[in-house]
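The methods section describes the discrete structure representation at length, but only in general terms. Each protein is reduced to its one-letter sequence and a matching series of backbone shape codes. I believe one specimen quoted in the main text would settle the matter. An entry of this sort, consisting of the sequence and the corresponding backbone structure tokens, reads as follows.
***
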Amino acid sequence: MSTVIYPSPIFGPVHSRRLGVSLGINLMPADGKVCTFDCIYCECGFNADRRPSLPRPTRAEVAAALERKLQQMKAEGTAPDVLTFAGNGEPTLHPDFADIVGDTIGLRDRYFPAAKISVLSNSTAAHRPDVHAALMRVDNNILKLDTVDPGYIAAVNRPTGHYSVDGVVETLRSFGGHAIVQTMFMKGTIDGRDVDNTGEEFVAPWLEKVKYIAPREVMIYTIDRETPDRDLRKATREELDAIRDRVVEAGIPCTASY
């Protein structure tokens, strides 16, 4: 299994299919993964195989490392399109997440004011007032909703704690349009169970909830990197395009990444 663990607290820049030239901000330990999901498709591997021994970076360490990197990029004439909170797990779990977002906004404004700030989140902590307020401050508040089928979530996203589909949907709706819904579509099996969520039985109810959430945008994508479970396959371009077109027909901008 050659899944990846990212450096911490800063990595990249890397080229993102969805965001462009992205400088990563990893609020998780540099030697492992901390997440409230244990997705079978996670490029960082399964939680049990990636237990960290190091602590999370502190708020001060994140700010210092980010400023050094932005200064370096400025000197080199390399501008990031986006500063992205991502990496080895769920960024909103960091106890100083809201303050770190504020620090990042200040540094972005000082060095690359045209760059956007994005957060890739699995939505499990977005209901917390401090996290919610911080996510309202970033340019791209990208929140995961792979399906609205509880059984599929249990088998594929594998939450490590309580997870309520209805609760997450209400949280996403509470952003009042300042949210981007991100959904993984894929095929294959896990322990003999079919995990193809490109069919009508998954897409139709998901689309109804997306319309109810009324996000600014929807990003749909499929597997791009090696996954810890080897029986997974990409959704086809045709399948993603068909789903994208249905979202657009509902009046919501949507991109598909292959």
